[in-house]
Each structure stands twice: as structure tokens, then as C-alpha cells.
Amino acid sequence: MNVGYRALAELLDYPSEQLQSNLGEVEAALSSLGDSTARAVAPLLAHLRGGDLLDLQEAYIETFDRGRRTSLNLFEHVHGDSRDRGQAMVDLLTMYRAVGLELSTEQLPDYLPAFLEYVSLLDAAGAREQLAEIAHILQSIRAALARRDSAYTGAFDALLALAGEVATTEPGDVEDDTTFAAIDAAWVDAPVTFLGAEAPCGTPRQPAEQAIQIHRRAA
To answer: Can you give the residue ranges of every domain in the chain?
Structure first.
């Protein structure tokens, strides 16, 4: 198990008193991912260490739960609210169980911290491959966070580097997706692919042991 990925999962989860009290251990665990990861995440660690817990929790909700562009549920960037999302969840759970991971959280399987728990159980090559599969989603979230000057941006810089990608920032005039009109418009969904198969809901899927394929959701 790579405890560094578990540390990143904890940092991206909802802030708690336990997280604040364990930040020293989290910081030490990050060292397994290299000095560049530790440097990228340092501003977030400082943010979590020095902030009032209620303020941190409020900011977290505002950052990740309002608007789809920064959602930590991966399939919201892929399937939206379409029926295909349910089968994709089943496929993802199958992948988790194949490495002995049973989720104890109430969050959905596509929640990024849960996915990082899965990645932590893979070897170095497998972890890099799985992160590379979601790199386009990480880039999109990272760009939105950077435009908001969020302390969480560094965590996505670290994840992209671990995936072998260079962080890029989208143009600054991208429409704000936290307005009520933008949130309503975001629920319009389009057909997508998952696990390399292009199929409507209810058709057979490819075997779960294949590498996860998470493709961009059509605009």
C-alpha cells in the first residue's frame, strides 16, 4: 500500500477534527510520493492547519459541492446524471473489490478520495496508469480551482504530476458554473463511453479487469 495516496485522499475529503489533529502524520505520509508532491501540497496543509474547522468545512462545501466544474465525483464530469452512471458505479466497485477494497464511506464510488484509496493499493505503474485515465478530469477541476485561488489547487498539481501530466490552466473567461442558471444547464447530459464500450444503458459491458476508461463528457 502506498500511504501517500491515502494521505492525498484524506486531504481532499471533508475537513474534520480528526484530519486537523493528524496533519503531521498526513504530511509525513506524503513523503512517499516525493519532494515535489510535498511542496505542491504545502499550501493546503497550511490552510487546513491554521483554519477554524467550521470555516474550513463551509469553504469546502462552497468549493466542491456548488457547481459541477469542481465536483469530486468523477462521473459527474463524464455521465452527468444519465442512467449510464449507475452501471459505471457497479463497474468501479468491481474494480475496487478486485484489489480487496470495500468502501466504508457514505460517499459514492466515484468520489475522488475513494478512487485514491483504490489507487493506493496498486503498484507504482498501476497507480500512474489509473491517474492518467482521469487526468483530463483532474485538469478541468484544477483549472477551476486555480481561477478561484483555492488552496486545494496544489493537491491537483500533485496528482497530475503523479499521472505524468503538466498542469494547465484554462482561459480565465470560462463561464461561472456556480450560478443557478449554470447549475440547471449542467444537468443536460449526452451519451458517453465507459470502459472502452460505447453502449446505451442495459447493454453488456467489457470485463471489469480492464483499465478504467473515463472519457470527457460531451459539451
So the answer is: 3-78+109-177
